Amino acid sequence: MARFHLPVLCAAVLLALAAPSLAGDPDMLQDVCVADMASPVKLNGFPCKANITADDFFFAGLKNAGNTNNAAGSVVTAANVMSFPGVNTLGVSMARIDYAPGGQNPPHTHPRATEIIFVIEGTLEVGFITTANKLFTKTITVGEVFVFPRGLVHFQQNRGYGPASVIAGFNSQLQGTQAIATTLFAAAPPVPTDVLAKAFRIDNGHVDAIKAKFK
After folding, report:
1. CA dihedral in degrees (145, 147, 148, 149; nearest 10)?
2. Which neighbouring-strand residues pair with 108?
3. What is the DSSP letter of 189?
4. Radius of gyration of the chain (CA)
5. Of the chain's two ends, which shows fewer C-beta atoms within 10 Å, N or C?
């Protein structure tokens, strides 16, 4: 099956999200502001580093597939401000998501960004759920694009017989991610068992059994 060259793909995804008026983050007030991750100053975002080079605007982490040997059968390699400080204040970031056969990027949300994905390998069932509890889902394959609106619960599942990969773009330097099951069943301190039992209409023993799977 044909694959797409990552440099061309990455440029296309970033251009699609680059309009400042559509950015999920506040507008920038200067040309660049490379994040100074060592600064003790805490603010909404990251302070600017004084001395910068071209390397601050470069990230090579998306060119290779990640290790999908885990319970979900997927891995997200992020190119956001935490690993790529040059995107600080620019309102964009990217990620590569790799899936083993049958692998899943479990239901989750990004509170600060819309996500758009471009399939570079394999076949995926993808979907999101609106606040009216309506599911929009589609099966997509190499060369196809799907978008997940900001803040809505969404997922991807590998429906092919081999590995799958996508490149994702976000209109935020740090989109934030909350995996629904992990958030509820692996919070620290834990969400009270009786709260989850009532919410899911199951007994306390079932809740404890699910919590045990996330330890």
Report:
1. 180
2. 154, 179
3. S
4. 19
5. C
Whole-number Å distance between alpha carbons of 117 and 13: 8
Tokens of 54: 């071209």
Which has the closest alpha carbon to 170: 10, 24, 20?
A: 24
- For 53, residues 6+ apart whose C-beta sits below 8 A from its C-beta are none
Distance CA 83, CA 175 (A): 13
CA–CA distances in Å: residue 190 to residues 111, 117, 120, 180: 21, 33, 38, 14
DSSP alpha helix (H) spans, the chain: 6-16, 180-185, 193-200, 204-213
What is residue 47's three-state secondary structure? coil
How far apart CA 184 and CA 192 sit, in angstroms, is: 10
Q: What global pTM score does this model have?
A: 0.85
Alpha carbon distance 186, 215 (integer Å) = 7
Picking from 79, 28, 30, the residue whose alpha carbon sits closest to that of residue 57 is 79
